[in-house]
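We now fix the convention by which a protein and its fold are recorded. The integers have meaning only within a learned vocabulary of local backbone shapes. The record below shows the convention in full.
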Amino acid sequence: MIDNPFRTLKQAIDEYLQWMLSNGYSFRTCDTYRNELNHFFLFIFRKQIDWNDIFTLNTLKDFQKSAQAATGPAVRGLWQYLFDQKRIHQPIDPPHRRLPHPYEDYLRYYYQTRKVSSIKLARIRRVLCAFHDYLERHNFKLVSIRIEQIDAFLAEFFVPFSPATRQTYRSYLRGFLKFLYYSRKIIRKDLAPLVVGARQFDQSKPPKFLRPHEVQRLFDSFELSSFKDLRNYALVHLSYSLGLRPDEISRITLDDISFAQSELTLTARKNDRPVKLPLPENTMKAIAAYIIGARPKSSHRRLFLNLVAPHRSASATSVGQHITECIRKAGLPGTAYWLRHTYAQNLLEAGASVYEIKEMMGHNTINSAEKYLHVHTKLMRRIIFYEDL
């Protein structure tokens, strides 16, 4: 029993902030956390919450509601810090619910082969949990599952989700069904190709891309006078010259780059086919400048690391944000994916076939690559109007 939970909490906050400073967190981050933790302390004091009830999800939710904002990272950080020191007994996130062997085997296989983040793995687990619960509720056996039963599950499960989220969750389920058929031989037919959504006949938002003068403007906007500039310059080069997704860029390791062969090896692509891509000279120089002049010294093998300590691997989300920030800073509209679309347009102009574009872009199907044919304005005008632009 803690005699004075408020004094204990105040002391824990001070110790945690000091720990952050000693571990290389920036002063700005520490100030932000200090402000949130001070608000949290006042919330606990006003509510007169006992020590055993401070670090619970209900208390965190009440605090977020009272602050009327998506606060909580500082409190979660303090929570994890105290748990690691064994000063509180409840972890910040409850342990994952364990599923039967086929499900857990697939999650383990997916993590080992894709090296995905824990966040994505948790999303896949949620879908599989819902699927397992549905089968249990209706007394359906996994070994004899039929597509009609899968469709019925999806119709029930998809009610609160947007079309984009539904498409993502279908891909998660297709991956599991492929695993059951090809790797474990648990089901007698590959049901993955049958898990499809309603066909989209109209594409209201075709891929957008940058014109040549806009690309030049983007690269001219870099001053290369800071660690951040050197990192972002390498990110933009990889996105523009190779058409890589932010997720693919975030997974590149130092071992994937061959400066002698001018090649980049991508071991984990969306289409599950590793590929070696030629590295243009300018892109290779940008990567070398980042490694020599800006990459933090670390035992991590990932190429791109956070510049602020602790120097963890940069996430796909942060890579996309950095590239988008560069585009906006140059006074241009667009996001990180615009550079990927621009790469596809350049392939088309160079005379690449849709099949070659499919392989270079890492698409699963021809349909994914064909969408770029509809937005190749220059080629369209040359063919239809005989205009040589």
Notes: The mean pLDDT is 83. The longest helix spans residues 27-47.
